[in-house]
Amino acid sequence: MGSRSSHAALIPDVENIRRETGFSQASLLRLYHRFRALDRSKKGYLSRADLQQIGALAVNPLGDRIIDSFFPDGSQRVDFSGFVRVLAHFRPIDDDTGVRDPKQPEPLNSRTNKLRFAFQLYDLDQDGKISRHEMLQVLRLMVGVQVTEEQLESITDRTVQEADEDGDGAVSFLEFTKSLEKMDIEQKMSIRILK
Amino acid sequence: TSGRRSARKPAPKAEGPPGRRGAQPGQKEPPRGEPRPGSPRRKPTERTGRRGEVRGQERSAAERTSERRRKGDDRASFKEQRAPPKKEKEALREEETWKRPRKPRSSSLASGDSGGESLSEEELARILEQVEEKKKLIATMRNKPWPMAKKLTELRDAQAFVEKYEGALGKGKGQRLYAYRMLMAKKWIKFKRDFDNFKTQCIPWEMKIKDIESHFGSSVASYFIFLRWMYGVNLVLFGLIFGLVIIPEGYIKYSALFYGYYNNQRTIGWLRYRLPMAYFMVGVSVFGYSLMIVIRSMASNTQGSTSEGENDNFTFSFKMFTSWDYLIGNSETADNKYASITTSFKESIVDEQESNKEENIHLTRFLRVLANFLIICCLCGSGYLIYFVVKRSQEFSKMQNVSWYERNEVEIVMSLLGMFCPPLFETIAALENYHPRIGLKWQLGRIFALFLGNLYTFLLALMDDVHLKLSNEETVKNITHWTLFNYYNSSGWNDSVPRPPLHPADVPRGSCWETAVGIEFMRLTVSDMLVTYITILLGDFLRACFVRFMNYCWCWDLEAGFPSYAEFDISGNVLGLIFNQGMIWMGSFYAPGLVGINVLRLLTSMYFQCWAVMSSNVPHERVFKASRSNNFYMGLLLLVLFLSLLPVAYTIMSLPPSFDCGPFSGKNRMYDVLQETIENDFPTFLGKIFAFLANPGLIIPAILLMFLAIYYLNSVSKSLSRANAQLRKKIQALREVEKSHKSVKGKATARDSEDAPKSNSKNATQLQLTKEETTPHSASQSQTLDKKAQGPVTSSSASNTLLPAPRHLPGSRPPGSRPDSGQPQSQTHPWRSASGKSAQRPSH
């Protein structure tokens, strides 16, 4: 334990990060190691290229979008706290049985925030709506070349129709939440971080 | 991998716009505008080779999960994701939080105690706080304005919590005990997770089948799943027969395959193993086990399917948002995933399309009648052909030195019919224009009729033969007795020395009809197997090779044009499998070794067909989901099982066994062995009980009772399913009402703010409702309204014909509840007069 905390002390600003993200010290340490491993040239921050070398992201049709989510506001680098903040969306939800202080902001790993993270993967222009066009783009990435444009469009139309409730031809975050109501997001969007 | 990725990404844009599905004769491009996953180019062996490579720990774990996610039945992965959370937990152990613990906090606790056995200060404080809180809750429980049930559960939870965590707060022993318990719990969970992984890995051919599924769709995969299941069943049957009959009889030689090899000694060996009895019981339990397993899996299939119907609200949204598996880190798996997502989208499109098809009813009807007529003609023709051949073969059997062809004519003709009729039916079925899934069922039904007709004609002929043999046997029996009598009583032999028993070959032998029947079945099975394999080799593989390699030097495009590649014939293969199984069931009583042969056959077919399908078939032109056809297969299997039970039961109950061969020789009927065992080997009171049980006075009421129970259960299940359907309808209606409300409201507010961009919005349906309120009813509008009332049959908003009708139209409530549809003239053929979008598109 002693050596562990001394390691953890290496992480800059560890207490704040911990409070914000809710990760345990051990997980933070683990993430820090990962961060350092990804940061190949020891810059102290990660660039897009660093993240692109991750295999699972490279084959993922939404990989670029995921990487984008690490770089809000067009910045080109992400430091450790930013890195952890994104990953905090995937922290398993712990069973706080509703005793949380309502004044505090919702933790990053709440269901809503998880969903919001997923939502912004599709919301390319970040206007709070997944438009038909955006959906089409994502779909193209997902099915590759094997489906005709016509079919792609009809799939998109159908999806929008299903989820769209207020008739604006786009899927808002609320509608998105609703269409995934039955999905067990808490489980699906959780990553177990090894100790 | 980044190279691969960049190659993929721009591709859709580079690909031409619509219309590239059509064959472009000039280009030597695969006809369907997609990389042919199954074409020989793909080199399947290389694939599997690569798959075998060792990957990083993380990767393989991720893959396993992805496999597991996609496993289950023949649905796309996203469906599974909707499964109830409990199932989820089992399926997704890997990437999920290590099984979210019941008790609060334990995840953070565990992170603390993972290093040593102690807890950090902070965590202790948190626990302390919580425990205090719970204690307070317990104390104030009485005053809370909760219902009793809630109070009780809360109380129990709180008490359990306090009990559990108080230990952690204590010093020394209590804390250590607690830490130990946590450690054990963690170990146990990890063990369970590992065990689950292990179980998944133990499912044979899972990877192969998933591979096929992702390229050919769930319907083709369902055949392989069925094949695997069948293999399992046969393995059990084989174990039964092998363990209880073949091994006890002693060393195995060729003839152990057949009935006549076994003798009728009541007991063998020092264990006094009762072979005839065992033989009889094994024969019965082969059927018993098969019946049980088929019915059980049918029942479990239906259970799965009942909970499914309600989930089709967001089919496309689910596919769109949740189908990618984010743990895939391997490009090959990613390829498979791409393929499977595409396939599942295609399946949904076909489903949508079919439910909204506009067609000329009269023409379709005429064509369907015509097709059925043609097929009945074919069936009659094949029946007559078999009858004719069987009659001829009876003549041949009387003649001496017949040629090889004449001896095997029946089998050859049957195999040929089985080979050529199904494609013929398929050609005819193209006239009918059914949804592929329904078409598959018709096709299955027809081939079923064909095979059944063939099999029963064959059986009847066989029965004729058996009766003939039985009548001959009487005379042979007399001769044998006479010979033996003469042998033992002949003079000139010293009476003090007992005579050596006469060698069986020196006595005239009966024909042993059971073995003859067994041989017939064996011949049929083997020839069937050979024909299947040859068909695959010639019809699929050679054709694929020819198309592939001759395409370079041919005057038209072979891949796009006439011969093309073969599609995997699901119906034919399924039925082939089912009837093969029927033959095994029938034959296994006369030829116990048949099951062993069948096990081998299924094993080879698994590999052979997997290879063939991946190397030389192409996906169906219209991919479709196999939802629940598994149960249809099972139903057919059950029917075949029953039909194959009949002849066996008939022979057991009413034909005398051969007098000098087989375990039942010398008995009047085969089932006498049962009586004999009861009389000789059981205590007498058991015999009495059996006799009592066999009394018709008891059996008839028992049967009646069973009928009553079936009737009762049936009516209960009917009423339950009705209630289920009604509830589902209610939910649907509620959702639609809600949606339409919102749509009206949202629209109204949206119009206040801005007007322009909506006019080009594609989903006109939502607009429709608001328009009705504002503008007076025009003719076209009332038509569309009416169309909406027609529900899913109509076609409406989408600009193209691919995915027309939204299933949940705002106005699709029952007409009575529709506030704004009082237009009587709108009842005229709505879906033919209005051609979709022109009537629909809002005009402002």
The level of helicity of chain B is: 55-70%
How large is the share of residues in beta strands of chain A?
Answer: under 5%
Query: Order of helices and strands of chain A, N to C?
Result: HHHHHHHHEHHEHH
Beta-strand level of the residues of chain B, as a percent range?
A: under 5%
In terms of structural class, how would the helical and strand content of chain A be classed? mainly alpha
Keywords (chain B): Membrane, Transmembrane, Transmembrane helix
Main location (chain B): membrane
Pfam families (chain B): TMC (PF07810)
Protein name (chain B): Transmembrane channel-like protein
Task: Give a quick summary of the entry.
Chain A is mainly α and 195 residues long. Helix content of chain A is 53%, strand content 3%.
Give a verbal description of the structure.
The complex is a heterodimer of chains A (195) and B (844). Chain A has helices spanning 2-8, 14-21, 25-38, 48-52, 55-58, 63-70, 80-87, 111-122, 132-143, 149-163, 173-179, 185-188, and strands spanning 129-131, 170-172. In chain A, helix 1 packs across helix 3 and helix 9 crosses helix 10. Chain A is 53% helix and 3% strand. A two-stranded antiparallel ribbon of chain A has the order 1-2. Chain A is mainly alpha-helical. In chain B, helix 11 packs across helix 15 (331-355), helix 19 (436-489) runs parallel beside helix 23 and helix 20 (513-550) packs parallel to helix 22. Chain B is globular and about 105 Å long. Chain B is built from 30 helices and two strands. Mean pLDDT of chain B is 68; it is low at 1-117, 306-310 and 754-844. In chain B, 66% of the residues lie in helices and 0% in strands. Chain B is mostly helical and 844 residues long. Chain B has a two-stranded parallel sheet. The relative contact order of chain B is 0.09. At the A-B interface, helix 3, helix 5, helix 9, helix 10 and helix 12 of A face helix 1, helix 2, helix 6, helix 7 and helix 14 of B.
